[in-house]
Amino acid sequence: MKLLVTGGAGFIGSNFVRYMVNKYPDYNIVNLDLLTYAGNLENLKDIENKPNYKFVRGDIADRDFVQGLFQEEKFDFVINFAAESHVDRSITDPGIFVQTNIQGTLALLDAAKSFDVKKYLQVSTDEVYGTLGETGYFTEETPLAANSPYSASKAGADLLVRAYHETFGLPVNITRCSNNYGPYHFPEKLIPLMIINALNDKELPVYGDGLNIRDWLYVEDHCQAIDLVLHKGRDGEVYNVGGNNERTNIDIVKTILKQLGKPESLIKYVKDRPGHDRRYAIDATKLRTELGWQPKHNFDTGIKETIDWYLNNREWWENIISGEYQEYFKSQYGDRLGVE
Ligand SMILES: NC(=O)c1ccc[n+]([C@@H]2O[C@H](COP(=O)([O-])OP(=O)(O)OC[C@H]3O[C@@H](n4cnc5c(N)ncnc54)[C@H](O)[C@@H]3O)[C@@H](O)[C@H]2O)c1
């Protein structure tokens, strides 16, 4: 069995590649990644020499390159993680989100169709459903109502995936997962950003009133869900993935400070993100009942392990935050925090 994993040098993709390379020694896994600012081969150091793993650098939106790769490798399964993934960046520069997330998905779908792959799995997000009020959950039937350029580009890609199933009979699945956390999470995202700033005794910028709610899932539980859908998902179906772990952002930040023994005076409320979705909550009943998925980690132990990982892997994140990331942090939070 030969698998193409795109975006396998990013946060979730690298956790997934490691999970699959170790779990299925008989599968050949090709990781296609452009290595944008978010891609990092350091994430895969421990498995890079495994005989069932290969890395290829390239752009999923480069149609000729993608067709050539499919012709050469004859993939059975395609799992598409590659994306521009950060909402804040999509507000500053939406174009690259359309390019990678929509054009890239289209190029992969065309190649999957031309070379008769057995399954195309699109890794999507609960953000395509928009925002919830104080009650209720997103189900697979919730209408798409994306609010940010990021989620709009992911929703557009999901509709293309659906269309390639309905129109051309391509065997597809879409997974829509809630927020992930765990090792190798890029420092611009909420949890690693707060851990690293706290460790450096820097201010922790919290958007708005800090009461936005996200439904957090440990990354390995997401990987396990994708593995299940890949092998057992019914063609054409969407599966929501979420762990019933709703937390406000401020609750997450306080949990991190407490574990690190740092004062809450480091918290700084800053101007909110425009169009900031208030609450996400996932109903994953379909995945649980149809495919028997069960998350293994609960939030209390998962967040503790994650914080410990950042404490034990300083070199990994210090390398990242020493370069281009500093420029990004200044442009995103400089005015809000009053720093040059
Ligand atoms: N992080 C979350 O909480 C979350 C939740 C649900 C769904 N998702 C989805 O999961 C996927 C992975 O998310 P992540 O947080 O790991 O993202 P990430 O930003 O950490 O990683 C994205 C990876 O894609 C690569 N990439 C970007 N553009 C590319 C291109 N044109 N061609 C090839 N590779 C390219 C990057 O180099 C990087 O390695 C995304 O599709 C995202 O929408 C993420």
Please summarize what this structure is.
The chain has helices at residues 11-23, 63-73, 87-92, 95-114, 149-168, 190-199, 219-232, 249-260, 285-291, 299-312, 314-321, 324-337; strands at 2-6, 28-33, 53-57, 77-80, 119-125, 172-177, 180-181, 204-207, 213-215, 217-218, 238-241, 246-248, 267-270. It is α/β, with parallel strands linked by helices.
Structure, explained:
Strands 3-2-1-4-5-6-11 form a 7-stranded parallel beta sheet, sandwiched between helices. The protein has a two-stranded parallel sheet with strand order 7-10. Helix 1 (11-23) links the parallel strand 1 (2-6) and strand 2 (28-33). It is built from 12 helices and 13 strands. With 340 residues, it is an alpha/beta fold. It has a domain at 2-181 and 218-241: NAD(P)-binding Rossmann-like Domain (Rossmann fold). It is 44% helix and 16% strand. The model has no long low-confidence stretch (mean pLDDT 96). It has helices at 11-23, 63-73, 87-92, 95-114, 149-168, 190-199, 219-232, 249-260, 285-291, 299-312, 314-321, 324-337, and strands at 2-6, 28-33, 53-57, 77-80, 119-125, 172-177, 180-181, 204-207, 213-215, 217-218, 238-241, 246-248, 267-270. The protein is globular and about 55 Å long. Helix 1 (11-23) packs across helix 7 (219-232), helix 2 (63-73) runs parallel beside helix 4 (95-114) and helix 6 (190-199) runs parallel beside helix 8. Residues 6-7, 9-13, 33-36, 38-39, 59-61, 81-85, 100, 104, 123, 125, 154, 177, 179-180, 186 line the site of nicotinamide-adenine-dinucleotide. Nicotinamide-adenine-dinucleotide binds at residues 6-7, 9-13, 33-36, 38-39, 59-61, 81-85, 100, 104, 123, 125, 154, 177, 179-180, 186.
